[in-house]
Amino acid sequence: MMWHHYYAMMGFPMGGLVLTLLVFLAAAGVVVYALRRPGSPDSGRDAAAILAERYARGEIDDEEYHRRLNRLRTS
């Protein structure tokens, strides 16, 4: 009788370890997915499009826009 209860309790810590490992791996997967998801800011946008947006918002003037655009095209 005593051995039966002993082995039943031995299975739980191992199951708890496996469950903890699975939860940890799932959490790590969620973090990696969140950092590398395709919809993150500036994904798929090229430098010329970003430059045009900055020009449209008035962050840079004509001279700077054309200078940077020429540099982008030559490099």
Order of helices and strands: HHH
Return residue spans where pLDDT drops below 50 for at least 5 consecutive residues.
none
Please state roughly what percent of the residues sit in beta strands, choosing from under 5%, 5-15%, 15-25%, 25-35%, 35-45% or over 45%: under 5%
| Total helical elements | 3
Query: Could you tell me the mean pLDDT?
Result: 79
* N-to-C CA distance: 79 Å
Structure description:
It is a single chain. The radius of gyration is 28 Å and the shape is rod-shaped. It starts with a helix and ends with a helix. Helix 2 runs antiparallel to helix 3 (62-74). It is mostly helical and 75 residues long. The chain is built from three helices and no strands. The longest helix is centred in the N-terminal third of the chain and has 35 residues, at 2-36.
List keywords for this structure.
75 residues; mainly alpha; 0% strand
Draw up the topology in text.
Blueprint: H1 2-36, H2 47-57, H3 62-74
